[in-house]
Amino acid sequence: MTGVLADFHVLRPWALVLLVPAAALWWLTRARADTTMRWREVIAPDLLPLLTAPGGERGRITPAAMLALAWILGTVAVAGPTWTREPVPFAAPQPPVMLVLRVTPSMQTADVAPTRADRAWQKASDLLALREGAAAGLVAYSGSAHLVLPPTPDTSVLLSSFRALSPEVMPVEGDRLAEAVSLAARTLASGGQGGSILVLADAVAPAQDALLRAAGGAGAPPITLLAMVPPDQTTVSLEGAAAALDAGLVPLSPDDADVRRIARRLDVARASVGDPASERWAETGYWLTPLLAALVAGWFRRGWVLAS
């Protein structure tokens, strides 16, 4: 009950302004119903009770009172009282993921057949197939970071762009993983759909650790790092980068175990964050409709409107 009261609010508080004319209407009708008001200016206060008969309306509900009550209930309904959340209709079944790919000469190494870069493309393709319908974007980095594609459900376009990346197209050699992660986080934030970041890299420059701690700090989306090296060669630099980013480090596997592990991590991250973009406050004002209908039904009684 405490949680309900803490979350209780109205979706359209401006509608509560309509309570002012409801109060004014109730006061005016009460004043008009007071038959002694017109005599107070001409009869002494001590004689007024002796010269007037008390009205017979005090003990029953008047049409004006019913109208004021219906007005108040209608105003509350329009304001949209709520205390719980519900899924947004037609919301994406899964939040987007930003792929952050290291595009350097080392990614052309063939110790992971056919090459580390080709295997990264295969893993990305498997992950997108496993998360069918979910949007994905792409950031490429080496000595600089570049947004290749914002989140899109068109996986064919993303995989084509992924395949076209090579060290030759990157303007500067180097390692700017922190810059790439920050760019991916800003892209997700601008989309307003939440999401996670998946880094596909075979190494990280030690000088990036301090910058990575800032990039993966409070407010950053969940991050996973897929080590694009043989399983028995996970480097200290990758482990340090994962620790600095507060990210999960997933070793490469010859089957799809790594991809399934990543997909589970993305789902867990979504559940822990709550994915507010896929939920909204539930509208509950319509529950007052039956009560409003019962009040309005009184106006169909013969002589009710003329009663006073």
Outline the structure in words.
This protein is α/β, with parallel strands linked by helices. The chain has two domains: 2-84 and 282-300, no CATH class; 97-279, von Willebrand factor, type A domain (Rossmann fold, 3-Layer(aba) Sandwich). The protein contains eleven helices and ten strands. It has helices at 2-7, 19-33, 48-51, 63-79, 116-130, 155-164, 177-191, 209-215, 236-245, 257-273, 289-297, and strands spanning 9-10, 81-82, 85-87, 97-102, 136-141, 145-152, 196-201, 223-227, 248-251, 279-281. A six-stranded mixed beta sheet has the order 6-5-4-7-8-9, with helices on both faces. A two-stranded antiparallel ribbon has the order 1-2. Strand 8 (223-227), helix 9 (236-245) and strand 9 (248-251) form a beta-alpha-beta unit. Helix 4 packs antiparallel against helix 11 (289-297) and helix 5 (116-130) runs antiparallel to helix 6 (155-164). It is rod-shaped and about 110 Å long. The two termini are 42 Å apart. Residues 271-275 have low confidence and may be disordered. It holds the Pfam family VWA_2. It comes from Methylobacterium frigidaeris. This is VWFA domain-containing protein. The chain crosses the membrane at residues 12-29, 64-83. Keywords: Membrane, Transmembrane, Transmembrane helix.
